[in-house]
Amino acid sequence: MHNSLFELMNKQELILQIQQKKSFLCIGLDVDLTKIPKHLLTCEDPIFEFNKQIIDATHQLAVAYKPNTAFYEAYGIKGWQALGKTIDYINKNYPELFTIADAKRGDIGNTSAMYAKAFFEDLNFDAVTVAPYMGSDSVEPFLAFKNKTTILLALTSNKGGLDFQGLKTDNQELYKEVLKTALTWQNPKNLMFVVGATKADYFAEIRKIVPNHFLLVPGVGAQGGNLQDVCKFGLTKDCGLLINSSRGIIYAGNDENFAKAAKNEAFKLQQEMEQILNENN
Amino acid sequence: MHNSLFELMNKQELILQIQQKKSFLCIGLDVDLTKIPKHLLTCEDPIFEFNKQIIDATHQLAVAYKPNTAFYEAYGIKGWQALGKTIDYINKNYPELFTIADAKRGDIGNTSAMYAKAFFEDLNFDAVTVAPYMGSDSVEPFLAFKNKTTILLALTSNKGGLDFQGLKTDNQELYKEVLKTALTWQNPKNLMFVVGATKADYFAEIRKIVPNHFLLVPGVGAQGGNLQDVCKFGLTKDCGLLINSSRGIIYAGNDENFAKAAKNEAFKLQQEMEQILNENN
């Protein structure tokens, strides 16, 4: 979804894709060389080759792809090259797809501006995930890009997620303060929020604060979150959810038919999503 | 400081350097191609050439170097190559120096493990900065590296720093909860904490919670923090402080004598530090 000409074009295109594909699936491209099929290891660029085959096999079932930068940085220069090739491949061949750099960045203002440049300009992602701990000026340089989306961590899916996010502040839990405060920053309509599927009980409370924003929801599958539970309180009139699955799809098979196995898993989730969308629309 | 053979060797080596150099200066290598001397832009790798000359000119006055990854990622593959060459250059030529990847990473457990691999194994830094928002399992994969240091954001120097860090939780401000909780995680002696120099008033309170841990202190210089104020409550018997200066040193000059100008600025800070150490020891 590069070359978006108008502000928020990418959100409108995303909603259109959801309607057409009857899917709100995001596939996490978290490529670990110890887990991919052995026959790919002899390729010149095993990470890109793996991603390319996964994307080719699943692009009609998913609306978004989300490489997590950690898995690329762990392989140094070759990893960054594979990340660049992957986003270029999507932007060239499937420009309708919504692309998310799952980078969880955040730093003082002038430094966050460099991260925004890295992901929005150099790599040309549609969206990037950002951590809120450093506050307003650490997030606003991302929000300054009007045709891009900033996905702020709110309530994460991991075991330690509530260590701090669940702390009660003067008024309410920290994650609620994060949600409310973020709405006061510049261009708040460019925000999405990360809310883990493992915290499905919280979605009703979260929808009171952000009734319409899209939520990026990791944690379905390997981490134990349930799609039906999330949708019960998470859905909006525009769908408003991107459900991410990484390991459950990309490592469904580990032989030469891995892409087909991934497609089968993506299809199962898409079918479940189609049923939910039909029931709710 | 690569090839550390023993747990915490790097902390002992750091303290030895502070004693020998009478300095606790960390130099931030935040290289912006629009700010470096023009004559370097014709080099094959301007970023690395700039870093090399800064390091060669200042290594006797500083104990640590801290490239912020944002400035390298903004230049894509070339940026990552320059980052790799910079850390390799330090580890080969000045192995006594303490090296910090200012990356502010943090993700779910298996993903944080990949970041730890990237910075501790692939790039071979001594330390990495980590954001606390995602809690225990987002930080512990870094702490699992026993001969490496994990520098957790506590109270940052930027304008938005108190947006969330200053929120009162049930018991106390969030940054204090972060400090206290982190001490309960594995290998807490491998921790340092980021505390901004612009928040000098908070150092007495912070020292009640972490009396002996090293603090990495950005915000002296361009951001307005004051060295004397920080030292008043921040110093410990082992010094316990790393004062970072980035722009104030590396952009002191912008012609062919830029490295000498950087050395002069580093020397001024080192002299001030020597006086403080002599007065307090």
UniProtKB/TrEMBL annotation, chains A, B:
Q: Which GO terms describe its biological process?
A: 'de novo' pyrimidine nucleobase biosynthetic process; 'de novo' UMP biosynthetic process
The record's keywords, sorted A to Z, are: Decarboxylase, Lyase, Pyrimidine biosynthesis
Enzyme Commission code: 4.1.1.23
Q: Check the record and name the InterPro entries matching this protein.
A: Aldolase_TIM, OMPdecase_type-2, OMPdeCOase_dom, RibuloseP-bd_barrel
Q: Which reaction does it catalyse?
A: orotidine 5'-phosphate + H(+) = UMP + CO2
* GO MF term list: orotidine-5'-phosphate decarboxylase activity
Give the pathway listed in the UniProt entry for this protein: Pyrimidine metabolism; UMP biosynthesis via de novo pathway; UMP from orotate: step 2/2
Q: Which Pfam families does the entry mention?
A: OMPdecase
Q: Which residues form the Orotidine 5'-phosphate decarboxylase domain?
A: 24-262
The catalytic site is made up of: K104
Q: Which CDD domains match?
A: OMP_decarboxylase_like (cd04725)
Entry-linked NCBIfam families: pyrF_sub2
Entry similarity comment: Belongs to the OMP decarboxylase family. Type 2 subfamily.
Q: What is this protein called?
A: Orotidine 5'-phosphate decarboxylase
Species this chain originates from: Lutibacter maritimus
